Amino acid sequence: MVKVLVAGFKGRMGNTTVQMVLEHEGFDLVGVFDPMASEKNLNENPAYSQTDVPVFTNLANIKTDAEVWIDFTRPTSVFENTKFALEHGISPVIGTTGMTDDQVKELQALAKEKQVGGLIAPNFGISAVLLMQFAKQAAKYLPDVEIIEMHHDNKLDAPSGTALNTAKMIAEVRKEHYQGNPDEKETLPGARGANYEGMRIHAVRLPGYVAHEQVLFGGKGEALTIRQDSFDRISFMSGVAVATEKIRNYSELMVGLENIL
Ligand SMILES: NC(=O)C1=CN([C@@H]2O[C@H](COP(=O)(O)OP(=O)(O)OC[C@H]3O[C@@H](n4cnc5c(N)ncnc54)[C@H](OP(=O)(O)O)[C@@H]3O)[C@@H](O)[C@H]2O)C=CC1
Ligand SMILES: O=C(O)C1=N[C@H](C(=O)O)C[C@H](O)C1
Q1: Which of 60, 93, 130, 150 lies at 20 to 30 Å from 229 by C-alpha?
Q2: Binding residues for NAD(+)
């Protein structure tokens, strides 16, 4: 049994993850974490009355034998949480987006020093992992590209971690070139979206949406659109489960679910 702690257990993703961990026969939920939680045990929530799982509310007071730390919290807390996990020999499986490149590098150095395996996955959904790989492949031949990501209107970070990672993967292969009209002017600031190495990223936030992305390529007289949709947060759970099962076999902190599939 893999002993698991879920950080952000009351959130949209954290709650879905708690259910997955409780239902998975190979996992044992040994703790949940949220600094704002008022309960002492998960069983105070009627939906989990049959469980016996301690609720932690302060990083400094966490005493746990957890082997894997699953994190779906906030862009402002994920760095400290991941650092705590690595420092305590707990393998982080991080879904929270919004860390800077410098923060990720610092955590990777710490994982190497501690020889602890971990994963940061901008997206645990297989459709998104495939979209990023297909987009990288297409960009070799169609270097003019724009990304549109669409999410629920409670999302904190923009652009999404998936969109940023898509742009980074494309940038690895895309021929450097100026895209669009060099004389273009935004008559309404922001109209052309964010700029990642010349690629435009547009973030849509609307009620009713969950998580969706389109990568649009344009060529002479032709276009290609690659799209993925997460209609339900269950779409992320098989990726989280695979990472939780496998991550202790590694001794570095990797970025991208594809590294362990
Ligand atoms: N990689 C992937 O496949 C996916 C990643 N995500 C990412 O996961 C993150 C969470 O998303 P979502 O569940 O929708 O967000 P929610 O806001 O629903 O959940 C976040 C939860 O974390 C709690 N929290 C805040 N600070 C801390 C902390 N320091 N430690 C522990 N818990 C804390 C929040 O409490 P409070 O509200 O009281 O602050 C809240 O309950 C986002 O960054 C999102 O982009 C989402 C879906 C898939
Ligand atoms: O906040 C979300 O919901 C999601 N966040 C991740 C991201 O920023 O890419 C993954 C997925 O898009 C859902």
Answers
A1: 93
A2: 8-13, 44, 95-97, 121-124
**Mean pLDDT estimate for the chain:** 97
Nearest residue by C-alpha to atom 10 in ligand 2: 123
Please give the average per-residue pLDDT across 81-107, as a whole number: 98
Active site residue 24: no
- Could you identify the residue written with the tokens 């992320």? 236
212 lines ligand 2 (CB under 6 A): no
Among 19, 58, 72, 151, name the best residue to mutate to test ligand 1's pocket (greatest count of ligand atoms within 8 A of Cβ). Answer: 72
**Going by C-beta distance under 8 Å and a sequence separation of 6 or more, which residues neighbour residue 253?**
86, 92, 104, 107, 108, 110, 111, 112, 116, 117, 118, 119, 120
Q: What is the pTM of this model?
A: 0.97
Element (H, E) at 212: strand 211-219
Number of domains in the chain: 2
Same domain, 218 and 250: no
The residue from 151, 168, 202, 212 that is catalytic is 151
Task: CATH number of the domain at 133, please.
Answer: 3.30.360.10
Range of the domain at 203: 126-230
Whether residue 155 lies in the annotated active site: yes
Amino acid at 97: T
* Predicted-complex ipTM score: 0.98
